[in-house]
Specification:
Strand order of the largest sheet: 5-3-1-11-10-9-8-7-6
Shape: globular
């Protein structure tokens, strides 16, 4: 009898531990302020542990009222279902840019970081004129001011549109002079095979002191074959999970609304087909790509 009780206890303990391990500490979601987020969108995901929205606060419906809607397209009056019901899915704030710079003034009027936030992302593609758009020298000085303003927080570097951007070289050089606090590196990456991308990310980490990386945007650009996108996810995510220099990652984006039949010129430098979406266009259900993304790759070693 006693041995049976012990066996039942051990089975129960194993199930609890398995549930706790279901989430990847690395895997996250990008939720934009566009009208592409739906009530219940977080619920199908069982393995994500964090999310961000390019703001310092969660309630982006205050800035974009059309942000979260029901399946019939009407704006959700009750916002509870717009956010994760699981308290273990952590929100990570981002300081998108700074006043006086950038293409979107609405994204630089966010409130200060909450006292509960322990890590901050800053800034979003400051090397691009259509994003945060800041000279590297100015960005370094402003970043150092953020360090002083939030001395107890962990800081993730600006996320350039490329890991080989000269902007980042200049920023890091200036930040070395200013003794900036940069705990992690941020990166965006849309092109290349899984091996090519991992090599670039490893080189990026090693170039700047071996800091670990937050890959805060990635997808398979210039591809309209869903099977190829699924194959890419199923190859690349295990690599990210097993790489010590990758600290966090998040796919771009939960729902990308473009027509699959849209023709693209192969000479176009950048486009993303909606097959990259993790959830269906009209329902909070995972697409084949979302199903591949949500697999517990961290447990498949």
């Amino acid at each position: 009898m006693e041995s049976s009780r012990i066996l039942i206890f051990l089975i129960g303990l194993a199930l609890v531990l398995a549930g706790n391990n279901q989430k990847s500490s690395k895997k996250g979601l990008v939720i934009s302020n566009w009208k592409n987020h739906m009530v219940g969108d977080f619920e199908p995901f069982k393995t994500v542990s964090w999310w961000y929205n390019y703001h310092t606060y969660k309630e982006i419906y205050l800035e974009a009222p059309v942000w979260c809607h029901l399946e019939n397209g009407t704006i959700a009056k009750n916002k509870t279902g717009c956010f994760p019901s699981d308290p273990e899915i952590e929100f990570v704030p981002m300081i998108w840019g700074e006043k006086g710079y950038g293409s979107n003034p609405g994204l630089v009027n966010d409130p200060d970081l909450a006292e509960t936030d322990y890590v901050v992302l800053a800034y979003n593609e400051p090397n691009r004129p259509d994003q945060a758009d800041m000279p590297a020298l100015d960005a370094a000085m402003l970043y150092r001011e953020l360090n002083d303003k939030y001395p107890d927080k962990l800081f993730v570097s600006p996320s350039c549109s490329s890991t080989t951007s000269p902007w980042m070289d200049e920023f890091m050089t200036e930040c070395d002079k200013l003794n900036c606090k940069i705990d992690y590196l941020a990166a965006h990456m849309y092109l290349g095979t899984p091996n090519q991308r991992l090599n670039k990310l490893k080189n990026f980490s090693e170039k700047f002191g071996g800091r670990k990386i937050w890959l805060t945007e990635f997808a398979l650009a210039k591809e309209q074959n869903m099977t190829k996108i699924v194959d890419f996810v199923e190859t690349f995510l295990p690599m990210l999970e097993q790489s010590d220099f990758i600290h966090k990652y998040s796919w771009f984006i939960n729902r990308y609304k473009y027509n699959h039949d849209e023709e693209h010129d192969e000479n176009d430098t950048f486009w993303i087909d909606s097959y990259n979406s993790l959830v269906e266009q009209e329902h909070p259900r995972l697409t084949p790509v979302g199903q591949a993304y949500d697999k517990p790759w961290h447990l498949m070693k």
